[in-house]
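Hi, here's the filled form for the chain we discussed.

Project: internal
Contact: R.S.
Residues: 303
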Amino acid sequence: MSADLKIWMNGELVPQANATVSVFDHGLLYGDGVFEGIRAYDGHIFEERAHINRLFESAKALRLTIPYTPDELSKAMHDALAANGLSDGYLRLVVTRGVGDLGLDPNRCSRATVFCIASTIRIYPQEMYDNGMSIITSSWTKNHPNATPPRVKSLNYLNSVLAKIEANDAGVPEAVMLNHLGQVAECTADNIFVVEGTTVYTPPKADGILDGVTRAVVLRIAGQIGIDAAERTLIRHDLYSAAECFLTGTAAEVIPVTRIDGRPIGRGVPGPITRKLKTAFEAYCRGSRAKTAAHASAVQAPA
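And the returned structure, exactly as it came back:
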């Protein structure tokens, strides 16, 4: 990452060294805030409307007022990309509760802090996209939905961080997490899919997952290219017996999984359906459907 990035912060572009938040910001003190990770391809922001809508939906669930309109945040992201000379890149759009005091009460924070980072990201090596990756099942479960809402993309990722540490200790880059009922939920930063026969399955939102933007795109693409895909509750048995497995996420895109808990998935190599979906997703990212900017189709915040 470049040390001289320009960061969009509270309405203006500032040098990275000046892009700071107060030690009294409740995003830092309590993880009180929301964010979106968003890709840009060929200068166009991928699924921009879906990401901004999810940001506002998450904020609404937390009763967090975003002091900018969706169109203003759209412009902020485009300005951050342009200021850093990025055509392909990764955006991190963050809204914190803002500066308050050392008490937990969010009413003590008068205005949210908002910033957007435009940089690059690479979380997995190319070899894993070509040959597949190994993951484990974490002993850490997803937070109960009545504890921390999984549909809110909040700044509190400690649950996932603990599972990520466990994955690191096991020598693998990712871990799948079960929910409080022992059902498959998602990985620390990615949604998970399995293939049984010729059908692709992924856990439903009700099983405690983030409603992933890339997940939704892959489900839609599957239907368009003639692959059956559906939401279904999964258990660990379904992972071990699957013919194929893959993960999706903004940063990860589409990446095959070939081993879980030391067990080979299918033949232990990326399967044909995974490869087909990965190729179709890459084409979609670079195609005209990915190039519909918010200026051509107004971004709407949830009511």
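Let me know if anything looks off before we file it.
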